[in-house]
Amino acid sequence: MVGSNGFQGIQSVARAMSILELFSDKRPSLSISEVADLTGLNRATIYRFCQTFRQLGYLEELADRRFRPGLKAISLAHSALSSRELPELALPYLERLRTEINETVNMGLLDDTEVVYVARVLSDHLISLRLYVGSRLPAYASSLGRAMLAFLPEDEAMRIIDRSDLVHITAHTIVDPKRLRTELRRIRKQGFAFNDQEIANGLRGVAAPVLTNEGRPIAAINVSIPHPLKGPAEIREVLAPKVIATADEIGRLASKVAPNHG
Asked: What is the pTM of this model?
């Protein structure tokens, strides 16, 4: 198979991707017969492709033998938006929040069991984690990670925690799965995650998820605060509402720019 740019690709891969590309907001689910009509491929071939995608998690098979995009396909779409457009779109909002509160503001994405930093606006404080865009932290222990895990379906979040290497990063780190489940439920109820020196001694953090219109997290933002400067009460009562409001603004903006992702 030769593309328009002269590149000779793999025909089976092109056929497989053509099936995934059929799904849209107008066609949220499709039967084998419908895919055959749309692609011109025979049903046996389509069935093998769909079952392979189902086993890999890119399609789900419904009770009426129709297929729809699976969690991996949704995650891939969200990652494409988040990793390319979202940090750039969010940066003015992160900078505004940093100016308002003079604390370090970060944005992170969830990559399986880890959080990947995609934006970081530093404060003037000397105490700070040595992090940069591209740095990774375990999701279970960070405010960014927990803010996203809490707004995933609970069974999905707990599968991520089960795959995590739950170790004490500091003496304050929560490593018990039952306590983490309880903490995620509290975060979902209150709308933000609070981290008290679980990633580094001397640092606290508060994070809120950036959600799609459907309520699924595509990112999270947080504020990192040196421990001596602000106590838990001030962080929860003063800073948390500002972080939540900024995350909500970014989520609404992302939905306007790419409405099919939310």
From this structure: 0.66
